[in-house]
Amino acid sequence: MAGIYIHIPFCRQACTYCNFHFSTLPGQKSPLLDALKQEISLTPPMAEDDFIETIYLGGGTPSLLLPEEIDGILKTIQQKFTISPAVEITLEANPDDVSPAIL
User: 64 and 32 in contact (C-beta within 8 Å)?
Assistant: First the structure.
């Protein structure tokens, strides 16, 4: 089973319990997302019969991304890899960042 993990390092604030790499500078989000998409596109191809079964966006707080930013990441992955029709896509979320409309 092939999967992709993407670390989105942005947070609204530093949590005392967190040991992960993070940034509270959301102004750096656009350059990071551009670099991330470039890195995905430069990744060597998988075997022809392999496909992605899971995509996990963790962090930081990936729920700080706008829906169109998430869509851009997923479209870049879809252009590069064969995605399973039953792919599981997971996004870590801070409850303060989501609403029924966003979900």
Answer: no
Burial class (CB in 10 A: 0-12, 13-18, 19+), 10: buried
Residue 76: Cβ-neighbour burial (10 angstroms; 0-12, 13-18, 19+): middle
Question: What is the residue whose two structure tokens read 């995509």?
Answer: 55
Query: Mean pLDDT in the chain?
Result: 86
Q: What are phi and psi of 52, to 5 degrees?
A: -85, 125
Q: Identify the pLDDT of residue 48.
A: 79
Q: Maximum Cα–Cα distance for the chain, whole Å? A: 44
pTM: 0.86
Query: How far apart are alpha carbons 44 and 81 in whole angstroms?
Result: 10
Three-class HEC string of 34-101: HHHHHHHHHCCCCCCCCCEEEEEEEECCHHHCCHHHHHHHHHHHHHHCCEEEEEEEEECCCHHHCCCC
